[in-house]
Fold this protein.
Amino acid sequence: MRKVYVKLWLTALFWGGAFVAGKHVSQHLGPCGIAFLRFATASVLLLVLTRWQEGRWPRLNAAQTVSIALLGATGIFSYNIMFFKGLSLIEAGRASLIIATTPAFIALSSALFLRERLGPVRIAGIFLSVAGAVVVVSRGSFQWGSSDVLGVGELLILGCVLSWVAYSLIGKIVMRGLSPLVAVTYSVVVGTAALFVSTCLEGLSENVSRASLLDWLAILYMAVFATVIGFVWFYEGVKRVGATRAGLLINLVPIFAVLLAFLLLKEPITASLGVGAAMVVSGVYLTNQIPPPSRDATTTPAREMSPQRTPVRR
């Protein structure tokens, strides 16, 4: 059991480190090129892993094919283009705290569109995490008319949040008939194909020729550790200790991201960043609390493994 918790801690570290790696490589390569190179590598590894775990590559029906295409378009294609472009404009630690509010927006959207219960504790968590994000984005000044407070970078990272909300809501439907590994693998493959087209327009050969050894190591890190190993270890943790306990440890992702950005990128930890981080992490903790089911309700494995219970993995 201790080994499972070590893996969950390392997963949080890997996902936090993805913000630092992404920040570094975004200074040298275009967002489409970075995303394509990362997920092309991850696609190969995930396809091999899926064949090994499932014994085959499961066939999709028409409805599943459409849903997987939507997953690839939202969670892989649009998310990562905005993610890497946003990271080229703002600090990695700041971006991680904005994205950390995603569970709150997923919970709110699930209540609005899927009629899922929130409960007072989760409502409080939503308000607290969003308020924390406001503190982080505004740097505590709240002068929203200034471009130094809410610029293109912040808007792009907020776009990432919306993309992942859409990915998660669609995924709640897809995972009723597919395992998480199959759904993620196929969506990564579809998203990678779309990224390839955009990368060719951006200049794939130019991106590859400009990449330094450190850039390639950062891309390899994001593909292997933050995408494949992180995914496998997180769902291993969900299976062994449950979604709630696994999710609580993964809530450390923004903390690791802020600390690693401070240590490796020399990004300052300001008062507004510290206060906002505490509010966001506390809010996400409350948001992840599932309200007690009604007497006639049952908890299904699909619900326990749904993307709403899955922290953002970057």
Remarks:
- Residues 294-310 have pLDDT under 50 and may be disordered.
- The radius of gyration is 19 Å.
